[in-house]
Amino acid sequence: MANMKNILKVLCIFTSVFVFSQTKSVKKITLKKGAKTAVKKGPAANKRNPDLVVINKDLPVLIPKKKGDYFGYVNQNGKFIIQPEYHIAVFFYEDCNLLNSPNEKVRKFGTKEYATVEKDMISYRIDQSGKRVYQFKEADFGKCVFEEYKQQQFQAYTMNGFYGIIEKSKFVNAADYRQFQIYPQYQYLYIMEGDDVANPMIVASNNDKFGVIDVNNKIIIPFEYANIKRNFSWKLGKMFEVTKDGSNYYYVDSNNKTY
To answer: In this record, what's one Pfam family (predicted)?
Structure first.
């Protein structure tokens, strides 16, 4: 009987050790599975915002838009993604002062993934979710390194009070109408800054209305606006800043679609 009790004790001890060892093994397996699951979830967390739709690949995914007295950003469908709260809002684009900052930690905020905005006389860089990620400090400003200037191929030419376009390298004799790229016929012409000097966009005025033409005198934006700003909107965003009433400006693309 005593021997039987001793045998039972040994069995109980063996069983406890076996169960304990299996429990530890299960825990280890669980931890490994947990680690693998965390890795798999990583890419999902970095998913692109579905609201940043791309209808026109030539346009920015976020476009400055004014509502009331403040600016925010809309997507290519015209939906506000960053609500209007800023006095100034520009395109998402590089800031060379920050890209070349002596403070290495802020250089990333100079990339085109961020935009400059201003509120209450304070300037910030925001990301595409609208989060303010950096407040400008003069001590962080570096020296801009500019690309070599691209010499314009065409220029405006006035004759008898009207504006035309000439190709500088070929133009010699104003008496020969064939030497004009566009014979003088407009009230005003201005060649927009852009990367393609062989095919620039040209702000023109005709019958007291503004539109946009190309160097072949093709109308890109119809002559229906009170003004079109001569700024960097074409170079930075492939868009034109226009107004019909002389005070409320908004953006249109090269198809005259409003944003």
So the answer is: WG_beta_rep
- Distance between CA atoms of residues 64 and 241, nearest Å: 10
> The sheet that has 227-228: what strands, in order across it?
227-228, 240-243, 249-252
User: Could you tell me if 64 and 252 are in contact, meaning their C-beta atoms sit under 8 angstroms apart?
Assistant: no
- Distance in angstroms (rounded) separating the CA atoms of residues 226 and 136: 35
- Domain residue spans of the chain: 63-140, 154-252
pLDDT digits (tens, 9 = 90+) for 179-211: 999 999 999 999 999 989 999 999 999 999 999
DSSP strands (E only) in the chain: 63-67, 70-74, 80-86, 88-92, 115-119, 122-126, 132-135, 154-159, 162-167, 180-186, 188-191, 202-206, 209-213, 219-225, 227-228, 240-243, 249-252
- Judging by beta carbons within 10 Å of its beta carbon (0-12, 13-18, 19+), is residue 52 exposed, middle or buried? middle
SS3 assignment for 61-102: CCEEEEECCEEEEECCCCCEEEEEEECEEEEECCCHHHHCCC
SS3 157: strand
